[in-house]
Amino acid sequence: QILPDGVALHCSEVEYQTIWREYFDMDTDYKTFRAAVPPEDAFLTRAARYGCGVRILQQEPWEMLVTFIISQRKNIPAIKRAVALLCEQAGERLCGAEQLCFAFPSAVRVAAMRPEALAACSLGYRAAYLRAAAQMAASGALDLEGLRQADDATLFDALVTVPGVGPKVANCVMLFGYHRLCGFPRDVWINRVIEQEYHGAFPLARYAGFEGVIQQYMFFYGRSAAYRADTGR
DNA sequence: ATCCAGGACGCTC
DNA sequence: GAGCGTCATGGA
């Protein structure tokens, strides 16, 4: 089945309708977002074309909160490793046909982890953040599901009450965990792009309501070998 | 070996 | 509110 942006899915119709349609955000028209990029913005024009298949996944708030707390001051391979270790240490064991597999652990399960198990996930100083976040989410002091109904500002304010969650991580959780496309996470890569391509001033207001989609184009292209080749390093 | 990583926090000023 | 040093660990 061929879907917008040349995406091809190899699964049954039922599986697509019940799982992947929402997860891959197939009912959102990203072409309209890309069309908002003015031709005179050569960087973003290239970035949007390069990342035309990028979509904002509809992932779970708790999973996003945890993974982006872990992400701070880590590179992507190290993040993957830490998340995998966390799943092995605390995740529910899945009956995989071939290889051993673990689910992403719930807040209750993370809150119940022994300190040694948590320390075995190579989280460093983030271990204390993660434990606090798990206690908040497990106790209901932080109602991650209820916050789906909250407006953007209320959601942001609630997220930054969690230890280890600042503006960058909160924007990631809003964007990927709550599908708030206004989220615009500023990480080292985005700051680098804004500095090099926009002299420190990016026209964010032009993309009101879908800032996060534009951010993804900037991030994906800015990190790519294609960009380094285009700019000569 | 050295630098840096999808930052946040606590402290000054 | 803006400008610092610090934080633990591993990847490149």
Present the secondary structure layout.
Elements: E1 2-3, E2 7-8, H1 13-23, H2 30-35, H3 42-50, H4 61-71, H5 76-90, E3 93-94, E4 101-102, H6 107-111, H7 115-119, H8 126-139, H9 152-159, H10 167-177, H11 188-198, H12 211-222, H13 225-231
Antiparallel strand pairs: 1-2, 3-4
The chain binds a DNA duplex (13 and 12 nucleotides) through residues 68-69, 71-79, 81-82, 122-127, 129, 163-169, 172, 185-190, 219, 223.
Give the number of DSSP strands: 4
Name the overall outline. Answer: globular
- Approximately what portion of the residues adopt beta-strand conformation? under 5%
Spans with pLDDT under 50 lasting ≥5 residues? none
Number of helices: 13
Classification by helices and strands: mainly alpha
Largest sheet at a glance?
2 strands, antiparallel
Roughly what percent helix? Answer: 40-55%
Order of helices and strands: EEHHHHHEEHHHHHHHH
